[in-house]
Amino acid sequence: MRRLKVAGMDVRYANREVVHDIYLELEDGEIGCLLGPSGCGKTTVLRAIAGFISPSRGTITVRGEPVHDAQRSVPPERRDVGMVFQDYALFPHLNVADNVGFGLRRWDTVKRTSRVNELLAFTGMGHHAQAYPHQLSGGEQQRVALARAMAPRPSLMLLDEPFSSMDVELRGQLARDVRRILKAEEVTALMVTHDQDEAFAMADQVAVIHDGRIQQQGDPYSLYHHPANRLVADFIGEGVFVTGRITAQRKVETAFGILAGTPLGEFAVGVEVDVLVRPDDVVCHESAGHRAVVTDRDFRGSSYLYTLMTSTGVALLSLMPSHQHYDIGASVGVQFDLQDLTVYRRE
Amino acid sequence: MNARIASRQHSLWVPVIVLAAAVLCIPVVVVLASLLEPPSENWEHIKSTLLLEYLANTGGLAVGVAIGTLVLGVSTAWLTAMCRFPGRNAFAWLLLLPLAMPAYIIAYTYTGMLEFAGPVQTQLREWTGWGYGDYYFPEIRSLGGAATLLSLVLFPYVYLLSRAAFLEQSICVLEVSRTLGCNAWSGFFRVAIPLARPAVVAGVSLALMETLADYGTVAYFGVGVFTTGIFRTWFGMGDATAALKMASLLLLFVFTLIIIERMSRRRARFHHTTSRYSQLPEYPLSGLPAAGAVVVCLVPVTLGFLLPAGQLTIWAIETFTTMVDSRFVELAAHSLLLAVTAALLSVALALLFAYGQRLAPSPPVIASLRIASLGYALPGTVIAVGVIIPFAWLDGALNTLTESAFNVSVGLVMSGTLVALLFAYLVRFLAISLQTVESGLGKIRPSMDDAARSLGLPPGQALRKVHVPLMKGSVITAVLIVFVDVMKELPATMILRPFDFNTLAVRAFELASDERLADSSTAALMIVALGLGPVLLLSKTISGARAGSA
């Protein structure tokens, strides 16, 4: 069953359209993510689903119940949608247990206490039940915010940049923790982030938003390897574009020879195109035919990201294991190891 | 945030707030409008004889207080913020105590102590054997005396703001200056002072606003300045138009100060270059420098609070059995009634404004808040003059109406009752309550409202379960501060109080003016004691400001 359905949604602020024609769907228990640069409108989509702002067009349906359409707009407190805020928005006058129990005021005391304890144990905050928010670290505050939003068992959970105020080193671990907690409680969730690593670590489905429009939806693998357009290709992962020309169906002629594969989209023979080449598509070894000079390198522990310049003046990125070591200025041989071709018409 | 919902649900905020602000700025408009009126005969006379004296005295007073508060405020702020010496932590809050001492009370306390028959000169004559006329003793009842005493009670404004600025200065900036070859002293003059300058200027501007607003001190000392001039013109010459004109001139000075203060505060934000906090360097002092630091901090505390408070206490012990009678209880009851009513009204209005700004932020609402907040800079005399004229006109119109319709006269229902006085208090003190309430409300982030809603609470419940508990503290603080300020207020109360209605502050001033200094001390001491409440609150917040920076 569809847990969340957003169809044809526009949101306007002061006569300016912030998001346009949004379609989104989440299945029961699925974790979705809206990924995009800051200011792209992703938080607006989230706030519209929560009911804090009113779309100017379109419908929102939660568990089959319309919460917003042309006739009605259900207020946030009756949408059965929980939210984890970017700044956590913990109530400073309440301790951890009372924060978590805040949304359970209609429950009887025994049930409420046991639900609060269950969540605190689950999020590893049991020993902090009596602490106040200002006594907690950022990660602990976030877990309380998560537990508080989950407590009333909402039909849908929204997470607004949940890791943005964390140290970079902590984010990966926290994202995995949060995913584990959400999956264990079978929570359907929609997250917003500008960080692709977070999105890939957390989400089953990712929608890339740019300029208020959804550019592409899919699982992390397909977004990385089959970006639907240049915006997505630029935003996700690293890489360069290599110019070429279609010589036959599934064949592109480039300075590095004829590349074969399945170009996305139909191109006539002779069309000028750009081919997306990811750093892991470029292999350096001595016997390769094309020569390039190492102009820069970025040590990443288990690997090096080399920036290369070919004798014909094409810049390439290459990701190599770190024991394959070249100095800046060294001349290396390069060759492409492309599985699928991602090709765009040259503009 | 939410334009569409805001325009639907909160449409009532805008007209209500704009209307409230419009009513609150009536006194200013009335006073400023008088600039356009044709001058009266008296005005020509005042202009040719007294105006120059008023200008010179006001200017002299302002320069004196500016220098005095600057020296006392910045030196004590720097020492308590950046140096370690015995008693430093105690001085940090002791230096706020003079704020509890109204200038007119310190003025006549010192007069009592320093006059010919007072304890100081008597002691001096006993030691030296001199008689009357044998020696020179400075006259406290003079322009210089007024400037000194005002500096002694107003320097905490400069102290507070510049201390906060020193504490906010990132250690990094000071360390950079040390690595670039500045020692502690040149670092102070080349880095710390320039960085704190906007805050220092803002503090001095506040002290000068209080100076321009002062009536009690200058009246008691017989120094002719604008506030006393307004009184004299109004009650001595009976010329309302000339009094208004003088008030409008005073307002122009005040507005200049407001602009200076606002501009420096805005600059202060940019001067805060980094937000990295770490332990301040805290130059340890010992031996002579430490003793010097103690003296520098001890002198203003002693002269500005301990000494006059001690003298008041001695007088009060001598006289309170005769002074505390049923009449005194009535005075206290009047003061309490006024202060409590004004405080509650002012905070209620502040809540209306603050919530209006939060829920329906729009240019007219923000402009209304600005206008309504101007009152903190307006001298009580100016507000009183600006209140009484429209209220008297309103009473006249009302009586004409009721007489023609019902053939009865309702009397002075506005200008002759507490309504006028309470309105003046609102104009004067709304800014204080608004600032306190706004800062409290600012701590409730909008996302907390959203969180409460998404957890199933309708707006009314969210207000009760989130806002009420979180706002309680700042609302109580606001009530307390306005309460104390109303207790102390002198000139507006003197002008606007109903016939035969007296308060502690007015009575204390009247007794002192009749040279019954000792008799006035019980009332004065009560005002000072109450004034300690908000000062102690303030001291608690500044001592906590760095330890657990939330």
> How many structural domains can be distinguished in the coordinates of chain A?
2
From the N-terminal CA to the C-terminal CA of chain B, the straight-line distance is 26 Å
Q: With helices defined by DSSP (H or I, 4 residues minimum), what is the helix count of chain B? A: 24
The greatest inter-chain interface is formed by: A-B, 31 and 24 residues
The total count of strands of chain A amounts to 20
The radius of gyration over CA of chain A amounts to 24 Å
What low-confidence regions of chain B span 5 or more consecutive residues with pLDDT below 50? 1-8, 273-278, 544-550
CATH domain class of the largest domain in chain A: Alpha Beta
Strand content of chain A: 35-45%
Largest sheet of chain A: 6 strands, mixed
CATH architecture of the largest domain in chain A: 3-Layer(aba) Sandwich
Please trace the helix and strand order of chain A, writing H or E for each element.
Answer: EEEHEEEHHHEHEHEEHHEEEEEEEEEE
Report the radius of gyration of chain B as a whole number of Å.
25 Å
Quaternary organisation:
heterodimer
General description of the model:
The complex is a heterodimer of chains A (347) and B (550). Helix content of chain A is 22%, strand content 36%. Chain A is α+β, with helices and mostly antiparallel strands and 347 residues long. Chain A has a six-stranded mixed beta sheet with strand order 6-7-8-3-9-10, sandwiched between helices. Chain A has a five-stranded antiparallel beta sheet with strand order 13-12-11-14-20, with no helix packed on it. A five-stranded antiparallel beta sheet of chain A has the order 15-19-16-17-18, with no helix packed on it. Chain A starts with a strand and ends with a strand. Chain B folds into two domains: 50-107 and 143-282, MetI-like fold, CATH 1.10.3720.10; 329-536, Orthogonal Bundle (MetI-like fold). In chain B, 78% of the residues lie in helices and 1% in strands. In chain B, helix 7 crosses helix 15 (287-323), helix 16 crosses helix 21 (459-488) and helix 18 packs across helix 19 (418-442). Chain B starts with a helix and ends with a helix. Chain A binds chain B through residues 13-14, 47, 50-54, 75-79, 81-83, 85-87, 89, 91-93, 102-103, 105-106, 134, 148-149, 152, and chain B through 1-5, 443, 445, 447-448, 450-458, 465-466, 469-470, 548, 550.
